[in-house]
Amino acid sequence: LSHLYHFSKVFYLCVHAISGNTDGAVARESTERNCSSTPPYLPSTAVNTSLQLEELRVQMRGMNISAYIIPATDAHLSEYIAPRDARLAFMTGFTGSAGTAVVTLNKAALWTDSRYWVQAERQMDCNWELEKDVSISSVAQWLISEVPKGDEIGFDPFLFSLKTQEDYNINLESSDRSLKSITENLVDKVWKERPSVPPDSLTRLPDRVIRRTWQEKVEHIRTQMGDSPYKPTGLLLSALDETAWLFNMRGNDIPYNPFFYSYTLLTMDEICSKPIIKLKVYLNASCEGALCVQLKGYDTILDHLKNYVTRPGVKVWIGTEYTNYALYEVITPQDKLLTSSYSPVLTTKAVKDETEQQILRDAHVRDAVAVIQFLMWLEKTVPEGNQTELTAAEYVDKCRSKQKDSRGPSFGTISASGPNAALAHYSPSKETNRRLTVDEMYLVDSGGQYLDGTTDITRTVHWGKPTEMQKEAFTRVLMGNIEISRTIFPSGTRGVNMEMLGRRALWEVGLNYGHGTGHGVGNYFGVHECTNLYLEMILRWQICCMLFFEQPGYYKENDFGIRIEDVAVVVPVQTKYGNNYLTFDTVSLVPYDRKLIDTSLLSSEQVRNRISLDNQLQDIYLQFLKMRYKYVLTQRHKMNARLHLGVSLLPQN
């Protein structure tokens, strides 16, 4: 909430104001394709996809299919995927994290949401149509218009969820077109330089960051299985974070996410998982028994599951959100199947125990120091004209790498200046890189992986003079952030109401944003953790002790973007009359840019909320100095800290 001020000789804290100049570092080409011009215009960022389309169509003809669907996920239905699973990017050139591609024998189309429309126009060549209605019904209608009656549409069942397959079937059932399950992925067959799986680098978490051993977790999950009235005999874990959480292990197969390729079949007397040779002793892999892990090859899951369901009296419990259709369709007959949206591992993992809560708070203190050092560096160097989006992204990673227990970034940093910040999920590249100037707004969305926690924080700053519109938009985004963080809500509150709190101040003046307002987060796990599950558990099941991100924003196309993102813990709260009420306790510790705040728009409650948080920041930073640098904290130090933090939202006398 201030400029960057010197903080007790150790680091600087800064955030500045904003202006409207959208000058780039160099003269720039048009950044989006124009397929209607003669000849068609393609920017340098577009990827030529003619060869892979031609080769894929050869494979399609060999399988006697007229279309092939290419999702943007992997066999575990993950949001973040390994380079070897980026089939949609290989085929289309589009690198956004969400989308569906369809290739017919003479056309190709991509469906993605509003976050990525501009990015898609920058990255795709004119072989591809861009469709903006991302519903499966929209994809199905396009297929019906392009695929002849009686023909088949191919898909990889390992990349389809149960609901996805069902929705396509429903939309196609009366059209005389049908889906054809092809277990050998056709894109993989034409992807000659497909990346390999990284060498195993699996580790077990140290005892200081865990409260429960893997054996205790296994017994707890088995208890839930035994308590189920449907009496499942086995639980299939498909999401990558399920096996990692259950065994207190981490890996490196997925960039930014400490996961490893794995499935686990947990029965009441047996545990089967992928071969983890280095940790055989830790997993009791050399014995047979209820707490001994039988290590199986990753690619044998389908055969092992088929064999298990042939046993008499077995019933397999699956979470449908993360189990692919290929595994689902081998669990037959139906009386051997038990489904729920989420497995008991995911619902248990979502509720953080006391150790997980505390270590995450500790990680956020260190992360805040890194981000503040980064903002100080920007304040000092941007006016010199030498920094770009890429150098800024590199420097924030460098600041985090110096913190205790750092394990790298939790996602690719969104470092966006001026019009690039209007793209909600922009990633800087050599082709799009802009120089940072005092005349443009700058948005940085970044996070870190630490042995004791995962962080994700977004701040929007400006080092010049912001326009009145920019100040109002920023303040209204801040108002949404405050309203979410201070709200007290009863059980049964619907998730849409949280969305409304984050958007109401923007809606009042006709502004909005095109992404969700919140998501879950793990402890040294994924930075996005089952968002729908989190909303459902927090608001319907009265669950506290969960971690949740609040991220309202506003984006003005080709001008600027604003987002404020903080992490909070869901905690119980005492009210005067009611019980079972919850609220959010914010644990992010980086102040906001004071120059961008129009305090006249804030209510007195919102002002008090910010002052309370600022006082908390002051105390935490002072304690950090005391512990790390052995400072003796005098009253003068405390007064200087408050001055340097610029914590008060109230006008200064």
From TrEMBL:
The keyword Metal-binding is assigned to this record: yes
GO molecular function: metal ion binding; metalloaminopeptidase activity
Domain Creatinase N-terminal, chain residue ranges per copy: 53-184
Peptidase M24 C-terminal domain mapped to chain residues: 580-608
Keywords in alphabetical order: Hydrolase, Metal-binding
Gene3D superfamilies named in the record: Creatinase/methionine aminopeptidase superfamily, Creatinase/prolidase N-terminal domain
Signal peptide: none
Residues of the Peptidase M24 domain: 359-570
Keyword Ribosomal protein: no
Family, as annotated: Belongs to the peptidase M24B family.
Name the record gives this protein: X-prolyl aminopeptidase (aminopeptidase P) 2, membrane-bound
Organism: Oreochromis niloticus (Nile tilapia)
